[in-house]
């Protein structure tokens, strides 16, 4: 069973950058697509980005983060990172990493393994 652990959240000014990291513990990400989701204050959890397990070139993003966020994975280290640049106040949310065996999905309920979340706050 894969356990997922996020790190790297914090407080940053608008226009700044943060890098989130997701690590597999007690297992590996082999065969798993990994996604990042976020839950803004008072809103539903939403898809942010995902990456296929077989190729780091197969990446997927929500429209509002395209060109600003980059998801990448290191299969040897069992980590998936989310580089977030040009951050905006509307990016403020709790960010979650999740894994599912097989292909990626942008539906949260299709992911089996979730981290505890990390807070990202972007001030204006």
Helix content: under 10%
Overall structural class, as computed from helix and strand content, comes to mainly beta
What kind of assembly state do the chains in view correspond to? Answer: single chain
- Report how far apart the termini are: 40 Å
* Percent in strands: over 45%
The count of DSSP E runs of length 2 or more, i.e. the number of strands, is 11
Shape summary: globular
In angstroms, what is the radius of gyration? Answer: 13 Å
In sequence order, what are the helices and strands, one letter per element? Answer: EEEEEEEEEEE
- Tally the helices: 0
In round numbers, the mean pLDDT is 94
Low-pLDDT stretches: none
Description:
By secondary structure, the chain is mostly beta strands. The chain is built from no helices and 11 strands.
List the helices and strands and how they pair.
Elements: E1 3-7, E2 10-13, E3 18-25, E4 32-39, E5 46-51, E6 59-61, E7 69-74, E8 79-84, E9 93-101, E10 113-114, E11 118-123
Parallel strand pairs: 2-11
Antiparallel strand pairs: 1-3, 3-8, 4-5, 4-9, 5-6, 7-8, 9-10, 9-11
Short description:
The protein has about 120 residues and is an all-beta fold.
């Amino acid at each position: 069973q894969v356990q997922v652990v996020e790190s790297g959240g914090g407080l940053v000014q608008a226009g700044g950058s943060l890098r989130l990291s997701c690590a597999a513990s007690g297992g590996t990400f082999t065969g798993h697509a990994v996604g990042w989701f976020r839950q803004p204050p008072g809103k539903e959890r939403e898809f942010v980005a995902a990456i296929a397990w077989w190729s780091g070139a197969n990446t997927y993003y929500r429209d509002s983060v395209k060109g600003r966020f980059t998801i990448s994975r290191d299969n040897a280290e069992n980590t998936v990172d989310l580089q977030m640049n040009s951050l905006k106040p509307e990016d403020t949310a709790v960010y979650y990493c999740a894994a599912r065996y097989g292909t990626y999905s942008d539906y949260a309920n299709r992911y089996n393994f979730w981290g505890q979340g990390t807070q990202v706050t972007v001030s204006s």
